[in-house]
Design brief:
- The strands form four sheets. The protein has a seven-stranded parallel sheet with strand order 8-7-6-9-10-11-12, with helices on both faces. A six-stranded mixed sheet has the order 14-13-15-16-17-18, covered by helices on one side. A five-stranded parallel sheet has the order 2-1-3-4-5.
- By secondary structure, the chain is an alpha/beta fold.
- 34% of the residues lie in helices and 24% in strands.
- It has 17 helices and 22 strands.
- The chain folds into four domains: 127 residues, Rossmann fold (3-Layer(aba) Sandwich); 178 residues, Rossmann fold, CATH 3.40.50.720; 113 residues, D-3-phosphoglycerate dehydrogenase, domain 3 (60s Ribosomal Protein L30, Chain: A, 2-Layer Sandwich), CATH 3.30.1330.90; 83 residues, ACT domain (Alpha-Beta Plaits, 2-Layer Sandwich).
- Bound molecules: nicotinamide-adenine-dinucleotide and (2R)-2-hydroxypentanedioic acid.
Length: 525
């Protein structure tokens, strides 16, 4: 039974779902780094919010971990390259808290426009400072949204509902989507120049980090108000402080900070700053949504292999998973076959998918083939890390999809190119759900791959099979299955034999020394 650790405060609904799905679950919040490292090895799944830091050291210690589920959107507290390299799927819940966070941004905008937190504190203190708090209307003002994705779009709709003019900077926002939303798509400088309120809704990336720095703040309209409910590092806090002190920026409402938890910060204590402790997603509704969603997604993966909302591998639906499994096994076997025979650097890999398999989620199958291909060189590779490793090694990977046109209803062919040669191997899945190789280097055959295989290429001449059989017999190597194929009578032939154990190096040498043998190699699957 898989075991999951919930290490941040999550709605109890998540625990119930794990239990209902037959998954053992422990809730241990507030663990420090060393405590987490000590226990993480026991778990197949880790469910988190933003407090738990999934560092390379945690991943290193996570011997059984298969999935990290983030109940929320940002996965900046998870070391994605380390998780990917270890084959750990990282998933988030991209929509569960979007409305809640957009509402927080709007609430922050009003708090800024009408000095609500400051007026609240003053009134509680019995000061009745009616003339001190003079606000501004939002109606007819320009709201500039930087990042118009899930949350930014909801903020845009709310802004339009408040009779604001909404402009957005987002390089990935299409003109059609902007028109649908009723926002004007603009460049960043234009937004900075025109907006009365600027609200940030991008992820933290190298391009968005420090987007509101001194240079860009200087381009904003005098009296601008800034809202950040996305990530702290989008604003340079020291530059914001200076821009407020100079009187250029009227104020800022911040839910997120460069360093969190933000117990101290250079902006704290400033009258023009409204601050909340990363509360964007903190409503009962959003927390219920993300907890339910993350628990369902993690359970689907741990129990059925279905992948939803992963940020590091392609998705596999629950319906697809059983259909894909035999083809993924085939793809991995094809990769492994080619990988064990390839002793030079790989330059290109092509996967051809023909017939029904071409309609499937071929990225998953390509990742499986790459895993098999790289495994002989790298023990630690898996379907999550294989595409990344292939890219790092400069291997060009391509897919070709075709409708059925050959003798088989559906098949996969893998072709590997090195500087010296090109090798291809093809296979299919029979109605028994078992993969078979159907072609090696253009030679047809039908072979199931067992654990130990002996692969021999030779010239098709009389006497060869007898000689080979007697070498194996002499070495007490039992033959489980014998598969033969040849290009033409007397031409290139291939012999793929399943044997009941290892084929020692000395036996391989004897086979290699037989007349007409080109190559003899022991393979394991
Ligand atoms: N405060 C909170 O509690 C809280 C809650 C939820 C989400 N968030 C954060 O809010 C942010 C937005 O979340 P989302 O769900 O809307 O994400 P999203 O991926 O749906 O939208 C992000 C948008 O940013 C755009 N973008 C990317 N690079 C950009 C760039 N260089 N310049 C301008 N736009 C760019 C993308 O095209 C996309 O449209 C994330 O950082 C997320 O972590 C915070
Ligand atoms: O879990 C939270 O409270 C914050 C979530 C938010 O930052 C997110 O990225 O989804």
């Amino acid at each position: 039974m898989p075991k999951v650790l919930i290490s941040d405060k999550l709605s109890p609904a998540a625990v119930q779902i794990f239990k209902d799905r037959g998954i053992e679950v422990d809730v241990k919040t507030g663990l420090d780094k060393d405590e987490l490292i000590k226990i993480i090895g026991d778990y197949d799944g880790l469910a988190i919010r933003s407090n738990t830091k999934v560092t390379p050291a945690v991943i290193e210690a996570a011997k059984n971990l298969k999935v990290v589920g983030r109940a929320g959107i940002g996965v900046d507290n998870v070391d994605l390259p380390a998780a990917t390299a270890k084959g750990i799927i990282v998933m988030n819940t991209p929509f569960g808290n979007s409305i809640t966070t957009a509402e927080h941004a709007i609430a922050m905008m009003f708090a800024l426009a009408r000095d609500i937190p400051q007026a609240n504190a003053s009134t509680h203190a019995g000061k009745w400072e009616k003339s001190k708090f003079m606000g501004v209307e939002v109606t007819a003002k320009t709201l500039g949204i930087i990042g118009c994705g899930n949350i930014g779009s909801i903020v845009a709709e709310r802004g339009i509902g408040l009779k604001m003019k909404v402009i957005a900077f987002d390089p990935f926002l299409t003109a059609e989507r902007a028109a649908d939303l009723g926002v004007e798509k603009v460049e960043l400088d234009e937004l900075l120049k025109r907006a009365d309120f600027i609200t940030l809704h991008t992820p933290m990336t190298p391009q968005t980090k420090n987007v509101l720095n001194a240079a860009n703040l200087a381009k904003t309209k005098k009296g601008v108000r800034i809202i950040n409910c996305a990530r702290g590092g989008l604003i340079v806090e020291a530059d914001l402080k200076a821009a407020i002190e100079s009187g250029h920026v009227a104020g800022a409402a911040l839910d997120v900070f460069e360093e969190e938890p933000a117990k101290t910060n250079i902006l704290f204590g400033m009258e023009q700053i409204v601050a909340t402790p990363h509360l964007g997603a903190s409503t009962n509704e959003a927390q219920e949504n993300v907890a339910l969603q993350v628990a369902e997604q993690m359970s689907d993966y741990l129990l059925d292999g279905a992948i939803t909302n992963s940020v590091n591998v392609p998705s596999i639906s629950a319906e697809e998973a059983p259909k894909l499994t035999p083809f993924a096994e085939l793809a991995q076997q094809l990769g492994s076959f080619a990988g064990q025979l390839t002793e030079e650097g790989i330059k290109e890999v092509t996967l051809e998918y023909e017939g029904d398999v071409a309609e499937m989620n071929t990225r998953v199958l390509t990742n499986a083939a790459l895993t098999g291909l790289l495994k002989p060189q790298l023990e630690d590779v898996n379907t999550v890390s294989a595409p990344v490793i292939a890219k790092e090694r400069g291997i060009q990977v391509s897919e070709v999809k075709r409708e059925q046109r050959g003798a088989y209803e559906t098949y996969i062919r893998l072709t590997v190119k090195t500087a010296e040669r090109e090798r291809s191997v093809a296979g299919t899945v029979f109605s028994d759900g078992k993969p078979r190789l159907i072609q090696i280097k253009g030679v047809n055959m039908e072979a199931a791959l067992g654990h130990h295989m002996l692969y021999v290429t030779n010239q098709d001449k009389p006497g060869f099979i007898g000689a080979l059989g007697s070498i194996l017999g002499k070495a007490s190597i039992n033959i489980a299955n014998f598969n033969l194929g040849r290009e033409a009578a007397g031409g290139d032939a291939i012999c793929l034999i399943e044997v009941d154990g290892d084929v020692p190096e000395a036996v391989l040498k004897e086979i290699q020394a037989l007349p007409h043998v080109v190559q003899a190699k022991a393979l394991t699957f």
